[in-house]
Every structure is written in C-alpha cells, then in structure tokens.
C-alpha cells in the first residue's frame, strides 16, 4: 500500500529515494541481535521493573511497532507490487563506537520513541528512563559491544507497468 501510494505521486520515470532501518540477515529466525538500540531500551525498562518503578504487566503490554526488512525482502516486495524498478540499493552498517555515541544515540532513540513511551507509561518516566538508557548504552560501549544499526537506502524509478 505504501509503495502504491508513493507511485501515485510520481510520473513514469520519476524517482524516489527511501531510507530505512533494515536487517543484515535475510534469515528472520537467525539469533543475532540486529537492534542493540532497542535491546538497550528493553533492558532499561527491565531495570525499572526490577526497581518497582514500572509494573511488569505494563512493560509486557508495551507494543513498539517496528519491522525492519532485509534487502531481499525489499526486492521481493518491490517486484510483487510492480510500480517501481530498483536503480540502486545500498545496505550500510553504522557502528557507533566513539566516546559520545551513547549520549547521542539515547537522544535519537528518545526522539523516535518518546511519544509512544509517554502515552503508554506516562510523562514522568521519560527523563529517568532515558538516563538509564544512556547508562545501558555506555556500559555496552565500554564492554566493546555493538551499539549500531543497519540502514538500507534504495533509489527507485516509477515504471510504466502501473
């Protein structure tokens, strides 16, 4: 539906560039941590549960709608939908292994999730949660653990078939 809607915005031969979080692995069942930033958020919420600052049931009912495709899934979906041809597709892995990264990544995650967190848990949790989140990311950084993500950028051309 998204692709069809974007297609309607363009003339044949028109171009569109999309950039999104992606998965490095094509195997959806592969047991690798593709999203250390969201894993750190999960751990931060678990810390709040252990400190009795948030009810476990409240965390268990928190739904963060996130789907991240592999490049193969994107190619398959674009082919099936049929409105676009792929000019280019690039997958990059951003490993944020520099000293100020945990603080910067905490601000990035906060910008992306704050409204969902406020709505589900209340505004009072936001500041302490992201202080904890920064600390969790910092501990991962110091331990040499991954705190990056996969980004897919795809350049599309509207085809004449739709």
Automatic annotation (TrEMBL):
InterPro entries reported for this sequence: MeTrfase_7 (IPR005299), MeTrfase_capping (IPR042086), SAM-dependent_MTases_sf (IPR029063)
Keyword Cytoplasm: no
Pfam families for the chain: Methyltransf_7
One of the record's GO molecular function terms: methyltransferase activity
Keywords: Magnesium, Metal-binding
Keyword Transport attributed: no
PANTHER family, sorted: S-ADENOSYL-L-METHIONINE:CARBOXYL METHYLTRANSFERASE FAMILY PROTEIN
Full protein name: Salicylate carboxymethyltransferase-like
Organism: Iris pallida (Sweet iris)
């Amino acid at each position: 539906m998204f692709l069809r809607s974007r297609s309607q915005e363009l003339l044949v031969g028109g171009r569109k560039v999309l950039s999104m979080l992606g998965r490095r692995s094509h195997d959806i069942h592969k047991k690798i941590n593709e999203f250390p930033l969201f894993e750190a958020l999960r751990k931060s919420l678990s810390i709040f549960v252990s400190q009795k600052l948030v009810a476990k049931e409240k965390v268990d009912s928190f739904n963060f709608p996130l789907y991240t495709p592999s490049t193969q899934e994107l190619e398959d979906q674009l082919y099936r939908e049929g409105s676009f041809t792929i000019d280019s597709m690039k997958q990059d892995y951003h490993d944020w292994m520099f000293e100020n990264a945990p603080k910067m990544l905490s601000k990035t995650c906060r910008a992306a999730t704050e409204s969902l967190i406020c709505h589900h848990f209340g505004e009072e949790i936001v500041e302490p949660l992201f202080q904890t989140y920064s600390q969790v990311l910092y501990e991962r950084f110091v331990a040499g653990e991954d705190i990056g993500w996969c980004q897919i950028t795809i350049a599309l051309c509207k085809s004449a078939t739709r």
